[in-house]
Amino acid sequence: MTNPPNPEAVTENAASESFYSRALPRMLRTMLVVSVLLLFPVFWFYGWVGAIGVAAGSAVSYINFRALARGVEALADRIVNQHSQEKGRAIVLRFLVRYGLVGIVAYAIFESSALAFRGFLWGLCLPVAAMMVEAGFEAYVAFRGPADGQRPTAKS
């Protein structure tokens, strides 16, 4: 004889799953905010040329991160779902196109200006900053104590 599931545990699991399922949109939003905030110190140190490099690096980084997320979802769907509409070659091609995009833009900027290339490299670091912010946010939510006896959740 099995016991019925605990309604509190089911609610807690659903809230936790909902919170973690919103991690990717939070990271993309963080990348946009950090890219705007990053323009000011880069402009201060490297001028307009560096700021344009940051803008280019941020744009490539954002597009690359979104494409990576979609590629991983498509690959997971292809592995799990036998009747997936995704072709394996198309998934691999998209992964290669991502790296080609980064390489082409990096080469073009590197050839035009060393200061713009430095800014471009700053912009390419956006996913790392977004993941660090997300890790800190998730740690904060996990470690803060329950206020009213319920598991903490965050709205975002």
Description of the structure:
It is built from five helices and no strands. It has helices at 7-21, 23-80, 88-112, 114-124, 126-143. The protein starts with 6 loop residues before the first helix and ends in a 13-residue tail after the last helix. By secondary structure, it is mostly helical. It has one domain. 17% of the residues are buried.
List the helices and strands and how they pair.
Elements: H1 7-21, H2 23-80, H3 88-112, H4 114-124, H5 126-143
Helix pairs in contact: 2-3, 2-4, 2-5, 3-4
**How many separate structural domains?**
1
Instruction: Name the beta content range.
Output: under 5%
Overall pLDDT: 81
DSSP strand count: 0
Give the radius of gyration: 21 Å
In this structure, how is the largest beta sheet organized?
none
Shape from CA axes? flat
> Helical residue percent?
over 70%
From N to C, what is the helix and strand string?
HHHHH
Distance between the termini: 40 Å
Discrete helix count = 5
